[in-house]
Structure formats: structure tokens, C-alpha cells
Structure to design on (250 residues):
């Protein structure tokens, strides 16, 4: 069955200009041409239905485009993608100006953190939005700055940490793909894969946070011990005994 664009709009419940917009963004393949007439088929109607479904789940168009390009016939992966999107965005989103105001930071500093890759917005339509995780990171950064660290040195250290974290995260994702999602095997149960992701993500977060804290404390104590600062060492040991790292996960 073939459709003119007006018929496709009626069948899909979309406006003609919306269909043309999706086509212009590369989300919808071009139609077959019969002279001057553009003819769409059932695959176009199904693609539009899939786009609408993913939009209702809160995925931005940029991510939907990747889903359609990389997983054209594997809707079983979409629950995991929706879970990923929700964890990235959180319950609220902010413009850059709103993020700066909420965190109590100059917007120029937020822009510098974005340029350094320390916070990464998502695109909702033509707008960049930041999630709750970005807000929490901005607040934590402000608290650390308040301790007297020079801004340029703190940013350089944060960039170095971010680069190393991305490299480790990529390897962790490869492990998840090979041993949990198993894309080369039979299509997995999407609910099982999504449940595994939701279970593992907070545990991995806790593991990384606790390991970093333990390493930071042990190195700091070793430095104090090496300098013979006995009083400072005793106080630091007492502080680490009473300190408890809290890793919250929404």
C-alpha cells in the first residue's frame, strides 16, 4: 500500500509539515518518486508510529535518530534505551541559565564546565537541557571550590578524571553488552535486560564511589604519615572512622 503525504498524515495522525520535518532531520527515509508525486509506504507509517512512541517515552529526537539508525528492527532494545534516557535526565531538566541559578554559580562557569566536557546536556528538540545529575555535580563542585582550590587547577583535575572515567565506562558498557544484553545472540527479553541495567547501575555507582573514597583517604593518610604529622594523622584517622560516604540513587 502506498500513500501520498496527505494520506500518510491522516493514517499516522500527524501533520504534513511534521512528516516533512522528520524527513528533513533524517528520521524518515525519503519517499519513492513517481514523476512529481512522492509516494510513501507501510514502512514509513510504521516508522512514524515508532517515532511517536519514543517521543511519548521522553527520548529526545537526537537519541531517536540513533535508535532508528542503529536498531532499525530491534524494538526489544527500546525499554533499555528509555531507562537510559530517564537515568540521564532525571525528573527535572534545566536550561544552562536555570542550572547556574539553581546551583548558585555564574553561568560562565557552567559554560566552561560544559566546554570541558564535565557536564553534558541532552537535546530536547532544538534546546539543550541539563538533568538533575548535572545540578548535583555543579553543587558539589561549588562546595569544593569553597574550600579554597584554585579554579583552573580544579578544572584541569576534573577534566583528567572525566577522561579516565569515560574510558572505563566504555569498557563497562562493552561488558554489559557482551554478558547481559548479548546483541549477537537471540533477542533478549527487554524487561530482563532493563531490570538488570536498573539493578547494576546503582551498584556500579556505589562501587566506583567507595573505591575512590578509600583510595583518596589511604593516599592522604600515607602522605601525612610520611611527613611525620602525627597529630594531623590521628585526627584524620578519627575523621575517617566516623565518616560514612552516602551514595544516593533516585
Amino acid at each position: 500500500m502506498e500513500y501520498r503525504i496527505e494520506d500518510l498524515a491522516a493514517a499516522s495522525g500527524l501533520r504534513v509539515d511534521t512528516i516533512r520535518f522528520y524527513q528533513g532531520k533524517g528520521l524518515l527515509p525519503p519517499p519513492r518518486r513517481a514523476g512529481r508525486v512522492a509516494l510513501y509506504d507501510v514502512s514509513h507509517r510504521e516508522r512514524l508510529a515508532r517515532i511517536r512512541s519514543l517521543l511519548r517515552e521522553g527520548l529526545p529526537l537526537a537519541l531517536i535518530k540513533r535508535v532508528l539508525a542503529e536498531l532499525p528492527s530491534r524494538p526489544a532494545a527500546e525499554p533499555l534505551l528509555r531507562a537510559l534516557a530517564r537515568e540521564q535526565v532525571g525528573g527535572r531538566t534545566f536550561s544552562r541559565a536555570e542550572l547556574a541559578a539553581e546551583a548558585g554559580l555564574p553561568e560562565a562557569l557552567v559554560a566552561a564546565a560544559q566546554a570541558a566536557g564535565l557536564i553534558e546536556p541532552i537535546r530536547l528538540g532544538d534546546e539543550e537541557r541539563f538533568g538533575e545529575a548535572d545540578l548535583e555535580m555543579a553543587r558539589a563542585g561549588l562546595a569544593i571550590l569553597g574550600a579554597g582550590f584554585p579554579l583552573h587547577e580544579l578544572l584541569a583535575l576534573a577534566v583528567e578524571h572525566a577522561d579516565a572515567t569515560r574510558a572505563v565506562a566504555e569498557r563497562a558498557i562493552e561488558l554489559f553488552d557482551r554478558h547481559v544484553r548479548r546483541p549477537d545472540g537471540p533477542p533478549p527479553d527487554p524487561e530482563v535486560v532493563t531490570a538488570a541495567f536498573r539493578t547494576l547501575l546503582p551498584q556500579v555507582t556505589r562501587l566506583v564511589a567507595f573505591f575512590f573514597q578509600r583510595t583518596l583517604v589511604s593516599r592522604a593518610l600515607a602522605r601525612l604519615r610520611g611527613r611525620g604529622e602525627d597529630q594531623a594523622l590521628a585526627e584524620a584517622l578519627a575523621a575517617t572512622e566516623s565518616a560514612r560516604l552516602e551514595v544516593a540513587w533516585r
Summary: The chain has a mean pLDDT of 80. The two ends are 47 Å apart (CA to CA). Strands lie at 2-3, 32-34, 37-41, 122-124, 127-129.
